[in-house]
Design brief:
- This protein folds into two domains: 157 residues, dinb family like domain (Four Helix Bundle (Hemerythrin (Met), subunit A), Up-down Bundle), CATH 1.20.120; 105 residues, Nonspecific Lipid-transfer Protein, Chain A (2-Layer Sandwich), CATH 3.30.1050.
- Helix content is 47%, strand content 10%.
- The strands form two sheets. It has a five-stranded mixed beta sheet with strand order 5-4-3-6-7. Strands 1-2 form a two-stranded antiparallel sheet.
- A hairpin with a 3-residue loop joins β3 and β4.
- α9 crosses α10.
- The longest helix has 21 residues.
Length: 295
Amino acid sequence: MTSASPQGVIDLSGHDLASTVPDSWDAFIDLVGRVDLSTPTRLPGWTVREIALHLGTWDGRSALNQVLQTLGADAAQQPLDADGFNAELVAAHAAATDEDVRAALRQSRDDVAALLASDLARDRGRDPVASVTGPLPLLTVVHAECYELAIHALDIAADADQDCPPVLLRHGIAALTDSTGALAARAGADATIGIIADEAAWSFTARADGGWTTAPVEGKPHGPRITGRAKDLLEAAAGRAEPVRLLATRRLKISHAAGLTALAPILDEVPGLPGGKGLALAAKGLGGIGALFRR
């Protein structure tokens, strides 16, 4: 059943997912277009090719279509096996030409743009679908693509002598904040927490009734928050960097650490949570909920 409670950026006035998500895809595709697909990445055993392969659409098979198949089905209540699906795609298309790999990425971009412009997004975008962290609204899961694209852009940039496009960093922080808010609300948390990057500052307010709001932070931030460069926040959230070290070197900073313990209920629902890792990992020595980040 569709929730009548607020659902993050879905209900944020002036925030256009129909442009934000394709913008992230465009920036990612441009980055991939500037590098050799055989370039190694920091992901063990994966070159740029494997990253691009698993993000592409192949004969109608894609991560997005896997999610859409659960809309209105009992399967929406179960976590997706993203790792297994990704491995199948990579193995099945390992012999694809570079042109085919880049075309598959463009197809994924075009498919999400078409979805966001469709009646389905308007009429059922608030309905639950399956995700790697369990049931979430369809448009929340689509928005989370911005987070994944930012992480994989950082994976590529680390070894390809490239910079991560700034638009991916900005949209990635917004998506990280929104998905963390969604998971906190689903777990019944009641809290306002900020993810304050130098490039983009956002916060969510989770409510005990399962609703949440997500909004950019205007002016000086207040209340519980984690602050740093977008790159460090995103990499801490994805397990690509050690948050304790980032805290020790002051690349990440915590304010009002006790407030982060409001995320503790997520532990019971989503062990290994990707969306909220950055917040809880940063709180590891301050609030005692670091297990949230085990992956």
